[in-house]
Amino acid sequence: MLGAIFAASYCYSVGHSAMALLLLVIGNVLLVAHVFLLNDWAGVHQDLRDPARTAGVFLHRGVRRSEIGWLLLLLLAASLAIFSQLGRMTLLVALMIAAASALYSAPPAHWKGVPLANSFLHLLGGVLHFLLGYSIFQEVDAKGMEIGLFFAVVFSAGHLVQEVRDHEADLRNGIRTNAVMFGKRRIFATSFLLFTLANALLLVLALTGSVPEALSLVVGLYPLHLYWTLQTWREALTGESVRRLQMRYRWLYAGIGAAMVASVLWA
User: Fold this and answer.
1) pTM over 0.85
2) How many other CB atoms sit within 10 Å of the CB of residue 35?
3) Is Transmembrane helix tagged as a keyword (predicted)?
4) Which one, of 93, 90, 94, 92, lies nearest residue 76 by Cα?
5) Nearest residue to 194 via CA among 232, 168, 222, 227
């Protein structure tokens, strides 16, 4: 959505913008649902062995794995049908998102268990999700890639925090995540370095005019994130402390996203 809002600010056809945004929302909901269902479908056996997740596994709710498989395919087909109405570039971006999701979750690739490659897919996915909306109203250009990179770095940093949170479960299931291979303290520190890089990117984007200059002010929230991170580190990266950190920075970046929307609309 943020990509569309940034690009639509240069579009003067209000009726066209409203209809395109509606189709984007519907298509994106279907595509994201496909991505999450594919991950659940592919990782069902690992989830059954995870005490924290086994109760929520769809098999325990009377839903067969084949039914989930058909549903995720229908969701993908429906989303692609919608994106095909928004232009060839938008459809291509949606196909790339689906392909990245398949590489990450589905056998035989299952890059979720390939260190560094899984982070690369999250970085790529972050850029693509931004460009999905951006491509509806603007040609994919350097400016779109630069703004998308900010979201991609945030997305990748959050993925590493999730790996730290799931370290014990992934270790039991033999999933070779970055946290399992390199140690959760090292990966936790890396995740914060990526969040720091994201803040630096946002500042550069604001100062160079790629995003409204007022957004440079939100970088002032960085010390708050630093404080939360150090607190989690001192608590030995327990599952509870990492989940609390996730909740906090998600609200923080949701606020940054809202500030972006407000600044673009105001401009």
Assistant:
1) yes
2) 23
3) yes
4) 94
5) 222
Burial 192-217 (b: 16+ CB within 10 A, else e): bebbbbbbebbbebbeeebbbeebee
Q: How far apart are CA 37 and CA 32, in angstroms?
A: 9
Do residues 41 and 107 make contact, with C-beta atoms less than 8 angstroms apart? no
C-alpha 34/C-alpha 262 separation (Å) is 30
The model's pLDDT over 169-226, given as tens digits with 9 standing for 90+, comes to: 889 888 899 999 999 999 999 999 999 999 999 999 999 988 888 888 888 999 999 9
Q: What sign does the dihedral 95-20-28-193 (CA atoms) show? A: positive
SS3 166: coil
Of 36, 61, 35, 59, give the one whose Cα is nearest residue 47: 59
Q: What is the three-state SS of 216-244? A: HHHHHHHHHHHHHHHHHHHCCCCHHHHHH
**Dihedrals phi, psi of 179, to nearest 5 degrees:** -65, -35
